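[Automated response] Your request has been received and processed.

Submitted sequence:
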Amino acid sequence: MSAHHPHAVLVLAGGLSHERDVSLRSGRRVAEALRGAGVEVAERDVDAGLLASLRADRPSCVVPMLHGETGEDGAIREVLELMSIPYVGATPAASRAAFDKPVAKMVVARAGLHTPESVCLPHETFRELGAADVMAALVERLGLPLMVKPARSGSALGCTVVHDAEQLPGAMVNAFAYGSVALLERFVTGSEVAVPVIDDGAGPRALPAIGIRPDGGVYDYTARYTAGSTEFDVPADLSPEVAAECARVAVAAHQALGLRDLSRSDLIVDADGRVWFLEVNVAPGFTETSTVPLSVQAAELDLGEVVAGLVRFAVDRG
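Generated structure:
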């Protein structure tokens, strides 16, 4: 807990999700970057004393660096709205829609973007209809390989690529460990790219796409947060046309979902150069191995100045 200054920018990090550790690392990085840009910053964890502390010492703006359920389902933002404290990032309603992968996919598909065919099933369905029969129908419909993931979770926790039908039961158990609904998605083979979108008042614009080449072939939690277990292409190795299309898709997803300030879209470029939307993150990580800071670097921008610009915009909107 750093010393408090009235009206400092408050970086919130930690919380109780599975991604607490990642959140703390993101928060530290953002706070340091903001201080480097001359912004006065306080840092705080999310706990039972948070509201009293916000009341006693109103920050000029909050930068929520919370990942996973608490950070991305809109709950903390809802509280900040109640207290009329400006914050960086999407509204509670937009956060919830983006965090719910099946909902986000439906919204972007309506906006004309490509997203892999998928089925979304609650845990009860397997119990009530018989897991084996349901799984047989899934494989018949979507084919293999499949990507199985919790409908609502960040950082690739509980995600498995299923190459043959025998692997499906274990993948379902893995997904259900993180939530009561699973998303099963046709696995698109191609290059995975992450595209941040920022809007500091001049309208949303995409930052350079970052190419992701995980050692094990799957960009899972370990690959995301273990230095050296994923190679990043900064920027991604794409033709100018495909890079422009990735940027277009990320901005279109950001707008279709009503997001603001900052988001990061995860996309796949297939062998034909078609860009597929997988998911969007409204509270992207800012750790040493996160893609947003790498993209900021590829754009030759300063991370502290970028976040300070978002803070200014949030305060003006305030």
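Summary generated for your ticket: The chain has a mean pLDDT of 90. The longest helix spans residues 20-36.
If you did not submit this request, please reply to this message.
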